[in-house]
Amino acid sequence: MHLWQATSICLLAAAAAPAAAADWGFADATVAVQPKGAGVNGGFKEQLSKSTPLSKPVSLAGADTLRVTLTTQEGSSAKRPHQAFLLLKDTQSGLDVSYPFTVKENGKSRVELTQKDLPIQFLSLAEPVDARVVLGSFGSSTPYDNSVFSLSIERNPDVPVPTVEVARYGKQPQIHHIFKGSPTSPPVAITLAFVGLVLAALPLLGGFWLLLGANVKHLPAALQSAPLPHAFFLGSLVAFEGLFFLYYTSWNLFQTLPAAAAIGAVAFVSGSRALGEVQGRRLAGLR
Amino acid sequence: MRWCLAFLLVCFLATVSALSSSGSRLLVVLDESTEKSSFSTLWSDLEGRGYDLTFESPKSDKLSLFAHGERAYDHLLILPPKSKGLGPALTPKHIIDFLDKDGNVILALTGKSATSSSISSLLLEVDVHLSNDRSAVVVDHFNYDTLSASEKHNVLLLKRPDALRSDVKAFFDGEGVVAFPNVAPQTLGSDSPLLMPILKAPATAYAYNPKEETPAPEDIEATGSQLNIISALQSRNSARFTVLGSVESLENQWFTASVKAPNGKKVSTANREFAKQLTGWTFKETGVLKVGKIEHHLATDGEVAAEDLNPKIYRIKNETFFSIEVSEYVYDKWVPFELPTGDELQLEFTMLSPFHRLALQPTSRTETSTVYSTQFVTPDQHGIFSFRVNYKRPFLTNIEEKHEVTVRHFAHDEYPRSWAISGGWVWIAGLWSVIGGFLAFVVVWLYSAPIADNAKKTQ
């Protein structure tokens, strides 16, 4: 560093130029924001300092024009640099864009920009962007790059911010399938109440029958005259219901059908005998 | 005999291990007038990594990228020709065909002379743009080499780039500065996800035509980080095309140069390591992914029998397990692939559109691969689904895996039984009460004695 400065000073001394001429800088710098339709001196205007940025951000609204004017200097003499940029930089996203000054031979420079000149990505930034002045040229002169103010880009909240949708490879949002709701049953208490109602129909029916005089008084007589047919007939009916229960819980059709055929044969044979006995009782006038 | 075989095998492995994952035939296209010897360190480095170098002049009659309709070379390195264009064997169409056939290309440019229009039209094919007059050079008054370019500031000193984004692997990072003399800048079209900048210019850099005086503001097309010093395209077949703005950065002179930034210390350049990273990436020595075993089966606690692995059919709402084995090639060997932080390897379970898109988690690691897996419930929709892993990331070769399976309904005997549904109890009770009533009725009908006689008697 020291060595380099020393050599540069030596070189400059040899070139018979003032040592201070090695530093690029500027003077008479102003930043102005001119609303649309306002006169030349309307709107915001502020002096810029070479060393310290403005404390408050400069706001640039929809149709405003931002104008930065300055006189570029090498050392203390006005001179035209090769590079004179107004550099806007968003420190968070790392975006940067430069606007070259229009520089005259005497160093008088100006740049104007509106929101239309800004890249779309800058319009949606929440934080003010850093506005820097970059001055540089060939040779050994020290270039200048400092923050001079911060620019806050004001958007009309009613106008949607234009966005750019560009395809970039990266992870995509996760998707978790939303399943249809599983079928639900009413509360068990309600179900049990209705089960109780349904099952209560059976004793109710039996009670009404008893009230009407239903009885099994002929059972001993029937069993006496035809014990086997009655036992088998009733047994086969109960067996049928048992078979249905097995089919409902575990058996398949191929197990059920042969069994049903066997029970059916028993029911047919024993039923015809048992019903013959019943007919005999009717013919005898007993029922 | 066995010793002999083992020796041969070792020899074979030794030659194979120092190679790119996609072949070793490298064609270098350079003008006869170009000093071949000024790049000798690069050539010996490439040969040391197992490449067979062939040097051809763009004007040569023998030069052809294809032989019998197939690629004659695996990789192509084009140095900027002094003459106009690259000749009839290297038209943009030939080079794009070469990319289509999985060949990799490095195209070096220089800002010393104007780039030919045939190279410019080749770059337009891949949406890389040069400056309008094709003779711009990047200068930066803040990051230049004070020893070699104290006046012109056209030797850029840049740090090696970090990862492009936080969720992307860095293949070009490292210590030290790299010198880029006479950079021809490129700008990239913003529409394509296949394009990626490898190295951007610093914010204070700009491009100008050295033949002209101070550039007028309207002549400045792009500045700062919009300018690319090195950019790359990885096509859908994972072939790589790299545009290097400064061919001089590969010269012997800059491999060993000492440079000094303004206000900096004198350091030696890291160009040689960076050239290794750049050629290694482009020629598929790094950033190459390989899929090993893919397994899916019903989720179980214990081991899965071989016949239950990768079934063709699943049922809706099945708890399913999926795993995929991924390896990454790093210069000469396959290593377990590690995801960068913030990135996800995602599994999609799709029928037309994804029903599930889930992050695969690394569950185990072998010597050469990482096994990523996840578990999920198949959606309540029957049809032809596929397990899909579509992993496309900048600088990594694409993984596109699609495995089709059928997802069927519940079978008739897989539903819950009616007694398990509390709402059905009323109907079951009704049924059995009817059966009970029927049996009682039969008994009463068979054995009931009439009461009419008693009534008649009492009357």
Strand content of chain A: 15-25%
Could you say what the CATH topology of the largest domain in chain A is called? Immunoglobulin-like
Helix content percent band of chain B:
10-25%
CATH architectural grouping of the largest domain in chain B = 3-Layer(aba) Sandwich
Q: From the helix content, strand content and strand pairing of chain A, which structural class follows?
A: alpha+beta
Q: Mean pLDDT score of chain B, rounded? A: 89
* The CATH homology group name of the largest domain in chain A: Macroglobulin (MG2) domain
User: What is the SS-derived class of chain B?
Assistant: alpha+beta
**How many domains of chain B?**
3
Helical stretch tally of chain B? 8
Total strand segments of chain A:
11
Q: Indicate the radius of gyration of chain B in whole angstroms.
A: 35 Å
For the biggest sheet of chain A, the summary is:
6 strands, antiparallel
DSSP strand tally of chain B? 26
Shape of chain B: elongated
CATH topology category name of the largest domain in chain B: Rossmann fold
User: What is the string of helix and strand elements of chain A?
Assistant: HEEEEEEEEEHEEHHHH
Assembly context of the chains: heterodimer
Give the integer mean of the pLDDT values of chain A.
86
